[in-house]
Amino acid sequence: MGIEDEQRQLEAARAALVSEFAGRLPEDEVAARFGEIVAEFEAAPIRGFVPVLAQRRARERLRALSS
After folding, report:
1. Is-contact 40 12, C-beta < 8 A?
2. What is the CATH number of the domain that holds 32?
3. Which of 45, 42, 53, 47 is nearest to 13 (CA)?
4. Which residues does 48 contact at the CB level (< 8 Å), separation at least 6?
């Protein structure tokens, strides 16, 4: 996977989370939490699963915030 593909997938994951938490959390909060999670994977040597893993971890944290 190239950087452009990864960026596209990360953007799609971010957008999906914004949509999922619409009405429960502000968009900027969802985006900020997702960005924090993505930063945790910055040094990951294998990048193929970073978008999926980041989306899952962010969803867990956002659910905790919204409940």
Report:
1. no
2. 1.10.8
3. 53
4. 1
Residue with tokens 């999922």: 20
Containing domain of residue 53, as a range?
A: 3-66
H helix runs in the chain, sequence order: 3-20, 27-40, 50-66
Measured at the CA of 56, the angle between CA 19 and CA 25, to 5 degrees, comes to 35
* Domain total of the chain: 1
Tokens at 51, concatenated:
């978008």
pTM for the full predicted model:
0.91
**pLDDT of 14-39, one tens digit each?**
999 999 999 999 999 999 999 999 99
